[in-house]
User: Fold this.
Amino acid sequence: MNVSTAAADLDAVILGGGPAGSAAAIELALAGRRVVLLERTLHAHDKVCGDFLSGEALASLDAVGVSVAALGAAAIRRVRLAGGFGTPSATLPFAAQSLTRRALDDALLQRASAAGALVLRGHTAESLHRSGNLWRVGVSGPSRRYALSARHVLLATGKHDLRGLPRPAGTHSDLVGLKMYLRLAPEQTTAIRDTIELVLFRGGYGGLSLVESNRANLCFVIQRSHLRELGRDWPAIAEVLTRNPHLRTRLALAEPLLERPLAISPIPYGLLLEHAIAEDLFAIGDQAAVIPSFTGDGLALALHSGRLAARALLAGQSSHEFQAELCSQLRRQISVATMLSRALVAQPRRSMVSLAAWLFPAALRAVACCTRLAPGHQIPADAVRVSHEKTCTAA
Assistant:
């Protein structure tokens, strides 16, 4: 299948090649559906993300045939909080891994292509409108513009909105996300191995963990008013972060691996889409729900939403039924994680959270449990499959 042959008779066009879009493409293609996935970037790249894969995320990846161990993911078994009252820690209630989005997204797109989806990198959806019982997608490719028609469209553009379809602001939208990869001093690398550290500082919080090749991922959110005073100069930002004594120790002699921090804003934390945008239009991933970083599990929810949308489409459910079900499944996690995120960025609640974790370290484990997908909502791994895996070449 190539662009010319895919122009008609498509079952679905998926807009966006992140975890949600790729997971949906894999499940649909393996079930024999004709699927085109549009990814606006030509090559995999780093993204502002905690790179954290919980047990639920790993189960979804295993179900769609992606092994993060083969990609060099770092194991995470413990969580540690560095606030104003020591550094309490707890064992996570699930096995976890840490892998860069550059590696994860690329592996998922390759898997989608191998499963039979037509994956078009460097192709951007410029317009979307309804024509009879079909959706018509105007696409801009590297060398030309063209149109695709399909019965269903899956909106998986992540934190980037499609023109004409803006999302609501969310309920906790005053934070800016930033990320820096670092090469820590050897003793600090050893100290955080197998652990994700949650670090609190004035106006924000973040996470520090190892990813593949022993690099450290420092991903954090900070109130926009605080960042406005700093700009995006790494030394100035690092000076604020290292007011936390624990993080000051971790970053001593650290070598930044990016010229400047990656950044994203605004982030509509707390967003949860309750109703479908339109008939046969499925919003998935961050287009459907945005859970605060580190207090929730965004990658697991994105993968779950993509797989759930594919299952709904295969079962003949409407986009309205799908969106209502997804909303029902995620409401508690989004609410708890957003409430906790609000507490972590403002005094005196930040100190109260830190004190509670110091007095009751098991609370860290409890929070990790209550912001995860409920066991009854997890999708089994028995995806509908055709008897053989098709391959196709992107034009």
In short: The radius of gyration is 21 Å. The longest helix spans residues 319-344.
